[in-house]
Design a protein that fits this description.
13 strands, alpha/beta, 26% strand, 11 helices, nine-stranded mixed beta sheet, 314 residues, D-Maltodextrin-Binding Protein, domain 2
């Protein structure tokens, strides 16, 4: 068994087709088939159910897939560790973050990091916190910026988490919209009466908000659901409705206005996670320091501009 065979196996599993996987790997299809067959002989088990136009994993293949992904990730880490012996002129950082953080905190972090370390390759993965932790556990990420609601007890012994920020969820509307005209704050009951735009179900933010309505025995008046962050903000700016978003989203958004949500007050916590059993590369450590320093700056500026809606977690 070698890394080339494992890489071929993972690609076939991802695409579900030998010919297309061979093209992605820049291999002839017979060469790819031989690699997989040799791997199956070495392991003493078939890895794929082969049917015309339909390639699926066997039980043995399902068991091998997460192990193969981790082995390939570890091999890549070794390669980049060796490159880093020359200093931070070379290397790679794979950062994951939620969509709301990608349009605020992460943009500032990546800009500053690239200016300081232009030779480091940056890879960004954007998805929900649960998916990011899965990617982190599988070795596909070095660091992940994840969020949890205030009452969440979700944790894992596999991860080291550094608390970064705590921020309130606020209700936003277009700056000139009558929906929040003359309103300083809203209760959840008052919010329930307004036309609301909600996020895709993969967003932890949506789950937190909908759970609050459920707990209060209320039903949200939804006019649009299933949207991604950019679409939500654009629709709000055009007056379609209001939305519940983290306070951080309001930075540099002159077309929007926000009011605080009370009774109940909803917050979320932002933390930086990495695997406990993996030593961070020098490039990843540099990224970690950049994230921590950027969080300090953001919380300081936000404290002045948002009245304590965003605070540094300790």
């Amino acid at each position: 068994m070698n890394l080339e065979q494992l890489r071929s196996f993972v690609e076939v599993a991802r695409i579900g087709h030998f010919t297309r996987a061979a093209a992605q790997l820049h291999l002839a299809q017979p060469s790819l088939s031989r690699q997989i067959s040799t791997l199956e002989v070495d392991l003493g088990a078939e890895l794929f159910h082969r049917a015309r136009g339909n390639i699926t994993l066997t039980d043995a293949g399902e068991s091998l897939l997460p192990l193969a992904r981790r082995m390939l990730a570890d091999a890549d880490n070794v390669r980049y560790e060796m490159q880093e012996l020359a200093g931070l002129r070379k290397g790679r950082v794979r950062l994951g973050a939620t969509p709301t953080l990608c349009i605020s905190l992460v943009a500032d972090v990546l800009t500053s990091f690239h200016a300081a370390y232009p030779g480091i390759d940056l890879h960004l993965t954007e998805q929900g916190s649960r998916g990011l932790l899965d990617e982190l556990a599988g070795g596909a990420l070095d660091l992940a910026l994840v969020t949890t609601s205030e009452d969440s007890s979700a944790s894992s012994a596999s991860f080291q988490r550094a608390p970064l920020l705590t921020e309130e969820l606020v209700v936003i509307a277009a700056k000139d919209s009558p929906l929040l005209h003359g309103v300083a704050s809203l209760t959840l009951a008052e919010l329930a009466a307004l036309p609301q735009i909600t996020f895709h179900e993969s967003y932890d933010l949506r789950a937190t908000t909908m759970q609050a309505f459920h707990d209060a025995g209320l039903a949200a008046r939804v006019v649009l659901e299933g949207a991604e962050m950019d679409a939500v903000l654009r629709c709000v700016e055009r007056g379609l409705g209001v939305a519940v978003v983290p306070a951080m989203v309001m930075v540099d958004r002159p077309g929007l206005r926000s009011v605080r949500l009370t009774a109940p007050r909803l917050t979320r916590s932002i933390s930086l996670a990495h695997r406990k059993d993996v030593t961070l590369t020098r490039a990843a450590l540099a990224m970690q320091e950049m994230i921590l320093s950027t969080a300090d700056v953001l919380s300081s500026s936000a404290a002045a501009g948002t009245g304590g809606l965003i605070t540094r977690a300790r």
